[in-house]
Amino acid sequence: DISGTQPSTWSAALDQEAAGVTLEDERAPRRLFVVSAGNAPNPIMLRDVMHPEACAIEDPAQAWNVVTVGGYTDKIHISEPDLSDHSPLADAGDLSPFTRTSTMWTSGRNRPIKPDIVMEAGNRAVDASRTTVVDTNSLSIATSGPDIDKRPLVPFRATSAATAEAARLAGRLMVANPDYWPETIRALMIHGAEWTEKMRYSLDPLGKTDASKLLRH
Known about the structure:
This protein has helices at 9-19, 158-176, 182-191, 197-203, 208-215; strands at 34-36, 67-73, 87-88, 94-95, 117-120, 125-126, 133-134, 141-144, 153-156. By secondary structure, the chain is of the alpha/beta class. Helix 2 packs across helix 3 (182-191).
């Protein structure tokens, strides 16, 4: 629960390990670290929900050499009968309500643009009166559960889920390209990513200053 506004011992250690240069061994292997941007608070009352711009990415996700993962969502279909009057909190293709951004970080060359990539992190549901917000399985990601007999699949959400998806993507790229350096895999992930239509719609009318802020989403 510490903001990544400033470099830390933890983020510096990740940078060294990723680059393969440590105090103990200057020829250590290079590594690819996939790090969660951190989760925004998820209050019950809609009035208490914070905009992602107000939730700074947390330590150690400010490390330059790691893949920092935030969340977006395409999940807008609520299937629970008792939530039939609810609507999705975020639009399809927009930032997930669970994610954080680096908009509040002090600008300057010593502040990396984070997150590097966003993956599906799930959505939340808001009631018809737009008073309360709830988490729901149909707006979450499914993952394998510990009780295989009774509940083989369980809901998974927020930037932990997004980070797991990014790690899977990195693993698949490494298997397909075993000779690539970790930083090459990182570059493929980040520069191969595409903006959703919702993101492009938000970006296109903006000037340079506002567009640079949007990059920190």
